[in-house]
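Researcher: Next entry in the queue.
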Amino acid sequence: MPITLGAKSLSELTHVHPDLVRVVHRLAAISTMDFTVLEGSRTVAQERLNVAKGVSTTMNSKHIPGKDGYAHAVDIAPLVNGKVTWDWSVYNKFSPIVKEAARLEKVPIEWGGDWKTFKDGPHYQLPTKQYP
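Model: Structure for this entry, 132 residues:
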């Protein structure tokens, strides 16, 4: 059964690149796990705060809208019993579903959980090579 994106999730997608938005909508159509969009675009001021708090390591975040006016990243969290989880075993089950949604939409995607350092379970982004 498709997942219905809530008002907050839809609002978070407002300034996100349309290709990534398509992936999230496809995810809602195919996912067997409920999820929420935690964050789409963010301001430079928000990113400064995130770096200061240690929840981000760069001011070159793909959450900050680029020259095209869109954020090229989105944070998506699976829900367990209706609540956001930070359990890596759940993210490891959820990420293949997100990647399948991207494949179906023919949109290349990178998952923060695949990074060698500063692994970021909720983070999905468009690759810089294809989306400068």
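Model: The chain has four helices and five strands.
Researcher: Noted, moving on.
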